[in-house]
Design brief:
The chain has 163 residues and is an alpha+beta fold. It contains 5 helices and 5 strands, in the order H-H-H-H-E-E-E-E-E-H. The chain has a 3-stranded mixed β-sheet, with no helix packed on it. A two-stranded antiparallel sheet has the order 1-2. Strand 3 and strand 4 form a beta hairpin. Helix 2 packs across helix 3, helix 2 crosses helix 4 and helix 3 crosses helix 4. It is flat. The protein starts with 12 loop residues before the first helix and ends in a 14-residue tail after the last helix.
Amino acid sequence: MKREPVKETLPPRREFSALGRIRMTRQRRVVFDSLLRSTDHPTASDIFMEVKEALPGISLATVYNCLDTLTHGGMVKQVCMDREPSRYCANLRDHAHFHCSGCGKVFDVPFSAGKPLSGSLVLPEGVRLDRLEVSLRGACPACIAAAQSGPDFALSAEAPEIL
């Protein structure tokens, strides 16, 4: 699992503690720190496998409870992709998620500056948009290259043209 610092997308720790939304227990801090280092949108099981090194007595249920609290506290986003396990994202800026159908990786996709996506939608009259979640599916460059280089790797059927 690739772990790199998440840059320019997250407020410093002190801003989170200033929010006062949740009490930051040791378990929540370790889970949160794991997500801050992550760029691959890990599942609860992925996080559990990493944090059990720092907290050998932690259970998968505790990791799920920490993630639930961090999500409801507004510190992380839960990313749901069809019927797959939920993934978690510490990037709190507005963005979409691209899910590679070949390798299963999930990538952040920023929106173009100055162009609100909600302006492209025709919403029913009188509704209020509270949150916009965009999920994209396709093939990443590595999977496209693998599919083109040999018969052992197959991508799903061609995607429809999207205007």
